[in-house]
């Protein structure tokens, strides 16, 4: 409770947390709270503005070119965005933290090889890599998660490696080595807990980045299959109607904007709380 109270002292962080909780609720509950069937088409109710009344009931955020309720599609689309964001972050964290720990503890053959692979991957623009892989493998939710996860492990690896290079020369690690402790135990019991604060901060900010990348690929038609509502695909569908039906593209864009801002606010607050220097200033 003390940690939560410290977190909520910041109004931006509290606002960001509220936005994230709303997005998570929409992702978890999904169709159960949707006012309409997100895939139901009603040509007679096409391109209705927000706060309109259609044949099937009220459309609070309007309808698209096929008469589908935008609010319902936003709620269902939140599930895809949050699932991809969190799952891809977990994949990146598992690969990146493992590589960073290995390279930081033993900065010789294996460590240098891993960092060489990381340098090569950094030289390739992420969007180009993602477009190439998704175009070859085809649009699917699993392929998208794997592509985003594997393409972003370098951030974890470089930060964790840098911290491990410092930690491995400290007294508690040297004492464990002198006592004959196995390397795997030193890494898991002494190094990993001490890098978790940085991993937590990176994870919070990376979720927002993953959501943006998923929306970008869906906008280009290379994300999940077109039958699944996503915010990026909704923006792409509405770009031809901006002049006379701005809400078709603006509503999913605004939902994407709010979600990313909320996650970034939460991540910034976590960074402030986990940084000892900033914590001392706050206290």
What does this structure look like?
This protein has 283 residues and is an all-alpha fold. The protein has a domain at 84-228: MetI-like fold (Orthogonal Bundle), CATH 1.10.3720. 71% of the residues lie in helices and 2% in strands. It has helices at 2-8, 11-29, 70-105, 109-122, 126-137, 141-151, 153-167, 171-178, 183-219, 231-238, 247-274, 276-282; strands spanning 52-54, 57-59. The chain has a two-stranded antiparallel sheet with strand order 1-2. A hairpin with a 2-residue loop joins β1 (52-54) and β2. The mean pLDDT is 88.
Short description:
With 283 residues, the protein is an all-alpha fold.
How is the secondary structure organized here?
Blueprint: H1 2-8, H2 11-29, E1 52-54, E2 57-59, H3 70-105, H4 109-122, H5 126-137, H6 141-151, H7 153-167, H8 171-178, H9 183-219, H10 231-238, H11 247-274, H12 276-282
Antiparallel strand pairs: 1-2
Task: List the main descriptive attributes of the protein structure presented here.
single chain, 283 residues, mainly alpha, two-stranded antiparallel ribbon, elongated
CATH topology tier name of the domain at 84-228: MetI-like fold
The CATH architecture name of the domain at 84-228 reads Orthogonal Bundle
> In terms of structural class, how would the helical and strand content be classed?
mainly alpha
Mean pLDDT: 88
C-alpha Rg (nearest Å): 22 Å
User: How much helix, percentage-wise, in residues?
Assistant: over 70%
Q: Give the end-to-end Cα distance, rounded to a whole number of Å.
A: 17 Å
Q: How many helices does DSSP assign? A: 12
CATH class division of the domain at 84-228: Mainly Alpha
Largest sheet: 2 strands, antiparallel
* CATH H-level superfamily title of the domain at 84-228: MetI-like
